[in-house]
Amino acid sequence: PVPLMEHTIQHLMDDFDSDEKRKDFLVKRASRFIRKLCRPGRDEVMGHLRSLCDSLVISTKFEPLPILKGLLPFLAYSCPFVIFSEHIEPLAECFDYLKMEKLAIQLQLTETWNREIKVAKNVTHPQMTMSATGGYILTGVKVNQVEVVVEKKGKYVGKGIGAIKGRKRKAPGAGDGGEKPKKKSN
């Protein structure tokens, strides 16, 4: 697909002793170029992300919080996410961020458990020198930061952050005729 550069021609002549090896090299080079040309471009990937995803899975050896901050806007409301890390501290930072910014509900930070099995002839048993943990998982559901009035059986209970589902109501005293329940006086 692309003309050979001078250093590539020199490499073919000096380092390969047969035409078969030269041909294998050129076939691999051509397939590498085809993969590069067929790879989706940045604009195409961003177009897919703008259409909003219905789930998000993050697994990294690096700090997950910057990745979460970068990808969470592309997750649709009321959709689940999961973040895996070998250590609990980075996930605790993500947990605090999501809780303080009120971006998610049903947050759970759990430990995974992994058991290695030793298999020998006619014998199978757990590995005796294995570690107890396989890492940690943070799960939750992204919510819209819409303040809604919570009512129970027609009575005002309080305000909260909710997803788009359900009816949005004005706060009591804002022209809808609702009033906060009065305390009984003795």
SSE string, helices as H and strands as E? HHHEHEHEEEEEE
How would a crystallographer describe the biggest sheet? 4 strands, mixed
Portion of residues within helices: 25-40%
- Indicate the structural class: alpha+beta
* Rg from Cα: 28 Å
- Give the DSSP E fraction (strand runs of 2 or more residues): 25-35%
Number of strands: 8
As residue ranges, the low-confidence spans are: 163-171, 174-178
Task: Give me the side-by-side strand order of the main sheet.
Answer: 1-2-6-3
Q: Judging from the principal axes of the Cα atoms, what is the shape?
A: flat
Mean pLDDT across residues:
79
| Total number of helices | 5
| Termini gap | 90 Å
Q: What labels would you give this structure?
A:
alpha+beta; flat; 8 strands; 186 residues; 5 helices; two-stranded antiparallel ribbon; single chain; 4-stranded mixed β-sheet
Secondary structure topology:
Blueprint: H1 6-15, H2 19-38, H3 42-50, E1 56-59, H4 64-71, E2 80-85, H5 88-100, E3 104-112, E4 117-120, E5 123-126, E6 135-142, E7 146-152, E8 155-162
